[in-house]
Amino acid sequence: MNAPFPAPVDDPAAWTGPQIGGREGFTHRLSQPQLDAIDGLVERTRGRAPHEIRRADFSSPEIDALMAAARWQLLHGTGAIILSGIDAARYDLDAHERLYWGLGTHVGTGVEQSPRRDFIAHVQREEGGPLRGYTTDMELRSHTDFHEVLSLYSLRTAPSGGESGAVSALAIHNIMARERPDLLAALYEGAHIDWPQRAVPLEEKLPFFWTIDGKTSGFNNRVFMRYGREPEKLPERLREALAFYDEIALRSDVRADFLLQPGEMFFWHNFLVLHSRQSFSDTPDRKRLLLRLWLNVPGGRPIHPAMARLTAEIDAFHGREPAVA
To answer: What whole-number distance in Å separates Cα of residue 235 and Cα of residue 191?
Structure first.
Protein backbone atom coordinates (compact mmCIF):
# COMPACT_ATOMS: atom_id res chain seq x y z
CA MET A 1 0.00 0.00 0.00
CA ASN A 2 2.74 2.48 0.93
CA ALA A 3 5.83 3.02 -1.20
CA PRO A 4 8.96 1.64 0.53
CA PHE A 5 11.18 4.36 -0.96
CA PRO A 6 9.15 7.57 -1.02
CA ALA A 7 9.77 9.80 -4.02
CA PRO A 8 8.34 13.21 -4.93
CA VAL A 9 4.78 13.01 -6.21
CA ASP A 10 3.40 14.82 -9.24
CA ASP A 11 0.05 16.22 -8.14
CA PRO A 12 -1.72 19.59 -8.59
CA ALA A 13 -2.11 19.66 -4.80
CA ALA A 14 1.69 19.76 -4.36
CA TRP A 15 1.86 23.56 -4.48
CA THR A 16 3.71 26.23 -2.57
CA GLY A 17 2.24 29.61 -1.72
CA PRO A 18 4.51 31.61 -4.05
CA GLN A 19 3.92 29.18 -6.94
CA ILE A 20 0.17 29.80 -6.94
CA GLY A 21 0.26 33.46 -5.94
CA GLY A 22 -0.84 32.92 -2.35
CA ARG A 23 -4.55 32.73 -1.64
CA GLU A 24 -5.32 34.09 -5.11
CA GLY A 25 -4.31 30.69 -6.46
CA PHE A 26 -7.42 29.11 -4.97
CA THR A 27 -9.89 32.02 -4.73
CA HIS A 28 -13.08 32.10 -6.79
CA ARG A 29 -15.03 35.36 -6.83
CA LEU A 30 -18.72 34.65 -7.09
CA SER A 31 -20.46 36.12 -10.11
CA GLN A 32 -23.67 38.12 -9.84
CA PRO A 33 -25.75 35.22 -11.27
CA GLN A 34 -24.22 32.93 -8.63
CA LEU A 35 -24.97 35.43 -5.85
CA ASP A 36 -28.52 35.85 -7.14
CA ALA A 37 -28.96 32.06 -7.13
CA ILE A 38 -27.72 31.86 -3.53
CA ASP A 39 -30.17 34.61 -2.60
CA GLY A 40 -33.06 32.69 -4.10
CA LEU A 41 -32.09 29.43 -2.39
CA VAL A 42 -31.73 31.15 0.98
CA GLU A 43 -35.30 32.38 0.56
CA ARG A 44 -36.50 28.97 -0.66
CA THR A 45 -35.16 27.26 2.48
CA ARG A 46 -36.51 29.84 4.93
CA GLY A 47 -37.93 28.13 8.02
CA ARG A 48 -35.86 24.95 7.55
CA ALA A 49 -33.32 23.76 10.10
CA PRO A 50 -29.96 24.08 8.32
CA HIS A 51 -28.90 20.46 8.82
CA GLU A 52 -32.22 19.22 7.39
CA ILE A 53 -31.51 20.89 4.04
CA ARG A 54 -30.59 18.40 1.33
CA ARG A 55 -28.69 18.97 -1.88
CA ALA A 56 -31.91 18.94 -3.90
CA ASP A 57 -33.25 21.75 -1.70
CA PHE A 58 -30.26 23.94 -2.48
CA SER A 59 -29.95 23.34 -6.20
CA SER A 60 -29.96 25.58 -9.25
CA PRO A 61 -28.00 25.46 -12.51
CA GLU A 62 -25.63 28.17 -11.28
CA ILE A 63 -25.00 26.58 -7.88
CA ASP A 64 -24.77 23.04 -9.24
CA ALA A 65 -22.05 24.12 -11.69
CA LEU A 66 -20.24 26.24 -9.10
CA MET A 67 -20.05 23.52 -6.49
CA ALA A 68 -19.25 20.74 -8.98
CA ALA A 69 -16.20 22.79 -9.98
CA ALA A 70 -15.36 23.40 -6.31
CA ARG A 71 -15.62 19.68 -5.52
CA TRP A 72 -13.37 18.83 -8.46
CA GLN A 73 -10.82 21.39 -7.25
CA LEU A 74 -10.85 19.85 -3.78
CA LEU A 75 -10.42 16.26 -4.96
CA HIS A 76 -8.31 16.66 -8.10
CA GLY A 77 -6.85 20.17 -8.10
CA THR A 78 -5.10 22.29 -5.48
CA GLY A 79 -7.19 20.77 -2.67
CA ALA A 80 -8.42 24.20 -1.56
CA ILE A 81 -10.87 26.87 -2.66
CA ILE A 82 -12.08 30.18 -1.24
CA LEU A 83 -15.51 31.36 -2.36
CA SER A 84 -15.49 35.14 -2.10
CA GLY A 85 -18.14 37.80 -2.62
CA ILE A 86 -21.06 37.07 -0.29
CA ASP A 87 -22.26 40.18 1.54
CA ALA A 88 -22.07 39.12 5.19
CA ALA A 89 -24.37 41.97 6.22
CA ARG A 90 -27.12 40.80 3.86
CA TYR A 91 -28.21 37.80 5.95
CA ASP A 92 -28.94 36.97 9.57
CA LEU A 93 -27.17 34.08 11.29
CA ASP A 94 -29.86 31.55 10.46
CA ALA A 95 -29.72 32.45 6.77
CA HIS A 96 -25.92 32.22 6.78
CA GLU A 97 -26.16 28.75 8.28
CA ARG A 98 -28.69 27.64 5.66
CA LEU A 99 -26.64 28.89 2.73
CA TYR A 100 -23.43 27.44 4.18
CA TRP A 101 -24.92 24.03 4.83
CA GLY A 102 -26.68 24.10 1.47
CA LEU A 103 -23.45 24.74 -0.43
CA GLY A 104 -21.71 22.08 1.65
CA THR A 105 -24.19 19.40 0.59
CA HIS A 106 -22.75 19.66 -2.92
CA VAL A 107 -19.32 18.65 -1.59
CA GLY A 108 -20.08 15.94 0.95
CA THR A 109 -22.07 14.76 3.95
CA GLY A 110 -22.02 17.01 7.01
CA VAL A 111 -21.40 15.37 10.38
CA GLU A 112 -21.70 16.37 14.03
CA GLN A 113 -18.53 17.94 15.36
CA SER A 114 -18.83 17.35 19.10
CA PRO A 115 -21.10 15.76 21.70
CA ARG A 116 -23.03 19.04 21.46
CA ARG A 117 -24.35 17.56 18.21
CA ASP A 118 -23.39 20.69 16.31
CA PHE A 119 -23.51 20.09 12.58
CA ILE A 120 -22.36 23.69 12.10
CA ALA A 121 -19.78 24.63 14.71
CA HIS A 122 -19.37 28.22 15.85
CA VAL A 123 -15.67 29.00 15.88
CA GLN A 124 -15.36 31.64 18.57
CA ARG A 125 -13.79 32.27 21.93
CA GLU A 126 -15.82 30.77 24.79
CA GLU A 127 -15.49 31.22 28.52
CA GLY A 128 -15.11 28.26 30.88
CA GLY A 129 -16.18 24.67 30.40
CA PRO A 130 -14.29 22.03 28.41
CA LEU A 131 -12.53 23.91 25.63
CA ARG A 132 -11.29 22.70 22.27
CA GLY A 133 -9.00 24.61 19.95
CA TYR A 134 -11.83 26.21 18.01
CA THR A 135 -13.40 27.65 21.20
CA THR A 136 -10.22 29.44 22.26
CA ASP A 137 -8.34 32.49 20.98
CA MET A 138 -4.95 30.79 21.00
CA GLU A 139 -2.70 29.99 18.06
CA LEU A 140 -3.39 26.70 16.31
CA ARG A 141 -0.36 25.37 14.48
CA SER A 142 -0.52 23.62 11.11
CA HIS A 143 -2.47 20.38 11.46
CA THR A 144 -5.13 18.19 9.92
CA ASP A 145 -8.37 16.98 11.45
CA PHE A 146 -10.35 13.81 10.82
CA HIS A 147 -12.79 14.27 7.92
CA GLU A 148 -12.04 14.48 4.24
CA VAL A 149 -13.15 18.06 3.59
CA LEU A 150 -13.23 20.89 6.12
CA SER A 151 -14.59 24.39 5.73
CA LEU A 152 -14.68 27.75 7.48
CA TYR A 153 -17.09 30.60 6.76
CA SER A 154 -16.10 34.01 8.10
CA LEU A 155 -18.86 36.20 9.51
CA ARG A 156 -16.81 38.53 11.74
CA THR A 157 -13.09 39.09 12.01
CA ALA A 158 -11.35 39.93 15.27
CA PRO A 159 -9.99 43.46 15.82
CA SER A 160 -6.53 41.89 15.68
CA GLY A 161 -5.11 38.50 14.71
CA GLY A 162 -6.92 35.38 13.55
CA GLU A 163 -5.13 35.01 10.22
CA SER A 164 -5.47 31.61 8.56
CA GLY A 165 -2.67 29.56 7.07
CA ALA A 166 -2.71 26.81 4.45
CA VAL A 167 0.15 24.46 3.65
CA SER A 168 0.16 21.71 1.05
CA ALA A 169 0.88 18.37 2.70
CA LEU A 170 2.21 17.11 -0.63
CA ALA A 171 4.61 20.06 -0.90
CA ILE A 172 5.98 19.08 2.51
CA HIS A 173 6.19 15.48 1.27
CA ASN A 174 8.16 16.48 -1.83
CA ILE A 175 10.56 18.73 0.06
CA MET A 176 11.29 15.90 2.48
CA ALA A 177 11.72 13.46 -0.42
CA ARG A 178 14.38 15.74 -1.89
CA GLU A 179 16.10 16.88 1.30
CA ARG A 180 15.65 14.02 3.80
CA PRO A 181 14.10 10.91 2.23
CA ASP A 182 15.21 8.87 5.23
CA LEU A 183 12.94 10.92 7.47
CA LEU A 184 10.06 10.74 5.00
CA ALA A 185 10.22 6.95 5.24
CA ALA A 186 9.56 7.23 8.99
CA LEU A 187 6.40 9.23 8.30
CA TYR A 188 5.14 6.55 5.91
CA GLU A 189 5.61 4.06 8.76
CA GLY A 190 3.50 6.26 11.03
CA ALA A 191 2.59 6.10 14.70
CA HIS A 192 0.05 4.52 17.00
CA ILE A 193 -3.10 6.50 17.72
CA ASP A 194 -4.49 6.80 21.23
CA TRP A 195 -7.94 8.39 21.26
CA PRO A 196 -9.01 9.24 24.83
CA GLN A 197 -12.56 7.96 24.26
CA ARG A 198 -11.35 4.58 22.98
CA ALA A 199 -11.04 1.87 25.64
CA VAL A 200 -8.42 -0.06 23.65
CA PRO A 201 -5.82 1.88 21.61
CA LEU A 202 -5.65 1.24 17.88
CA GLU A 203 -2.71 -1.10 17.46
CA GLU A 204 -2.43 -0.49 13.73
CA LYS A 205 -0.18 2.46 12.99
CA LEU A 206 -1.63 5.44 11.17
CA PRO A 207 0.89 6.83 8.67
CA PHE A 208 1.50 10.53 8.24
CA PHE A 209 1.60 9.87 4.49
CA TRP A 210 0.03 7.05 2.49
CA THR A 211 -0.24 6.18 -1.20
CA ILE A 212 -3.29 4.22 -2.36
CA ASP A 213 -4.25 3.68 -6.01
CA GLY A 214 -1.52 6.09 -7.05
CA LYS A 215 -2.86 8.92 -4.86
CA THR A 216 -0.74 10.25 -2.00
CA SER A 217 -2.41 11.91 0.98
CA GLY A 218 -1.42 12.76 4.53
CA PHE A 219 -2.48 13.26 8.15
CA ASN A 220 -0.87 15.20 10.96
CA ASN A 221 -2.62 15.63 14.30
CA ARG A 222 -0.38 15.06 17.31
CA VAL A 223 -3.21 15.28 19.86
CA PHE A 224 -4.37 11.78 18.96
CA MET A 225 -0.88 10.33 18.52
CA ARG A 226 0.55 8.11 21.24
CA TYR A 227 3.11 10.22 23.10
CA GLY A 228 2.05 13.20 20.97
CA ARG A 229 2.41 15.40 24.04
CA GLU A 230 5.54 13.56 25.15
CA PRO A 231 7.75 13.58 22.03
CA GLU A 232 10.77 12.46 24.03
CA LYS A 233 9.14 9.00 24.20
CA LEU A 234 8.85 8.67 20.42
CA PRO A 235 11.40 6.72 18.37
CA GLU A 236 14.31 9.03 17.59
CA ARG A 237 13.88 8.91 13.81
CA LEU A 238 10.15 9.68 14.01
CA ARG A 239 10.82 12.52 16.43
CA GLU A 240 13.37 13.99 14.02
CA ALA A 241 11.02 13.50 11.07
CA LEU A 242 8.17 15.33 12.79
CA ALA A 243 10.45 18.20 13.78
CA PHE A 244 11.60 18.55 10.16
CA TYR A 245 7.98 18.35 8.96
CA ASP A 246 7.07 21.22 11.31
CA GLU A 247 10.04 23.28 10.15
CA ILE A 248 8.99 22.95 6.51
CA ALA A 249 5.38 23.86 7.34
CA LEU A 250 6.59 27.17 8.80
CA ARG A 251 8.65 28.19 5.76
CA SER A 252 7.34 31.38 4.19
CA ASP A 253 8.21 30.06 0.72
CA VAL A 254 5.93 27.05 1.26
CA ARG A 255 2.80 28.27 3.02
CA ALA A 256 -0.01 30.68 2.11
CA ASP A 257 -1.23 32.99 4.88
CA PHE A 258 -4.33 35.15 4.64
CA LEU A 259 -7.17 36.74 6.58
CA LEU A 260 -10.52 35.24 5.69
CA GLN A 261 -12.82 38.24 5.25
CA PRO A 262 -16.51 38.33 6.26
CA GLY A 263 -18.54 36.58 3.58
CA GLU A 264 -15.64 34.38 2.46
CA MET A 265 -15.90 30.61 2.63
CA PHE A 266 -12.80 28.40 2.69
CA PHE A 267 -13.04 24.71 1.77
CA TRP A 268 -9.99 22.44 1.84
CA HIS A 269 -9.18 18.76 1.51
CA ASN A 270 -8.08 17.78 4.98
CA PHE A 271 -5.66 15.09 3.78
CA LEU A 272 -4.01 17.37 1.22
CA VAL A 273 -3.87 20.73 3.00
CA LEU A 274 -2.89 21.56 6.58
CA HIS A 275 -4.51 24.56 8.19
CA SER A 276 -3.45 26.88 10.99
CA ARG A 277 -4.67 29.98 12.78
CA GLN A 278 -2.90 32.85 14.48
CA SER A 279 -4.02 33.90 17.95
CA PHE A 280 -6.54 36.72 18.08
CA SER A 281 -7.98 39.30 20.46
CA ASP A 282 -11.66 40.18 20.75
CA THR A 283 -13.13 43.38 22.15
CA PRO A 284 -16.50 43.67 23.93
CA ASP A 285 -18.15 45.15 20.84
CA ARG A 286 -16.46 42.98 18.21
CA LYS A 287 -16.03 39.24 18.65
CA ARG A 288 -14.60 36.98 15.98
CA LEU A 289 -17.08 34.45 14.56
CA LEU A 290 -16.64 31.81 11.90
CA LEU A 291 -18.82 28.83 11.06
CA ARG A 292 -17.29 25.40 10.40
CA LEU A 293 -18.28 22.24 8.54
CA TRP A 294 -16.81 18.74 8.63
CA LEU A 295 -17.69 16.78 5.51
CA ASN A 296 -17.32 13.11 4.62
CA VAL A 297 -17.02 12.75 0.85
CA PRO A 298 -18.51 9.67 -0.84
CA GLY A 299 -16.32 8.66 -3.76
CA GLY A 300 -13.52 10.91 -2.56
CA ARG A 301 -9.78 10.41 -2.39
CA PRO A 302 -8.53 7.00 -1.12
CA ILE A 303 -8.27 7.08 2.68
CA HIS A 304 -6.01 4.84 4.76
CA PRO A 305 -8.11 2.16 6.56
CA ALA A 306 -6.84 3.22 10.00
CA MET A 307 -7.85 6.81 9.24
CA ALA A 308 -11.29 5.69 8.05
CA ARG A 309 -11.82 3.68 11.25
CA LEU A 310 -10.80 6.60 13.45
CA THR A 311 -13.14 8.96 11.58
CA ALA A 312 -16.05 6.52 11.94
CA GLU A 313 -15.42 6.17 15.68
CA ILE A 314 -15.34 9.95 16.12
CA ASP A 315 -18.62 10.26 14.23
CA ALA A 316 -20.22 7.59 16.42
CA PHE A 317 -18.98 9.26 19.61
CA HIS A 318 -20.35 12.65 18.56
CA GLY A 319 -23.91 11.42 18.23
CA ARG A 320 -26.33 9.80 15.91
CA GLU A 321 -26.03 8.76 12.29
CA PRO A 322 -24.58 11.45 9.99
CA ALA A 323 -27.01 13.54 7.98
CA VAL A 324 -27.57 12.33 4.43
CA ALA A 325 -26.96 14.77 1.60
So the answer is: 10
Give the other-Cβ count within 10 Å of 286's Cβ: 12
Longest dimension (CA), the chain: 58
Q: Is 69 helix (H, G, I), strand (E, B) or coil?
A: helix
Tens of pLDDT along 169-219?
Answer: 999 999 999 999 999 999 999 988 776 666 555 667 899 999 999 999 999
CA–CA–CA angle 248, 132, 277 (5° rounding): 35
Indicate the pTM of the whole model: 0.92
- Taking the C-alpha atoms of residue 86 and residue 114, their distance in angstroms, rounded to an integer, is 28
CA atoms lying within 13 Å on the CB side of residue 322: 21
Please write the tens of the pLDDT for every residue from 209-229.
999 999 999 999 987 776 555
How far the first Cα of the chain sits from its last, in Å, is 31
The letter for the amino acid at 199 is A
Q: Which domains does the chain have, with CATH numbers?
A: 22-318 (3.60.130.10)
The three-class DSSP label of residue 303 is coil
Q: Which residues pair with 167 in a beta bridge?
A: 274
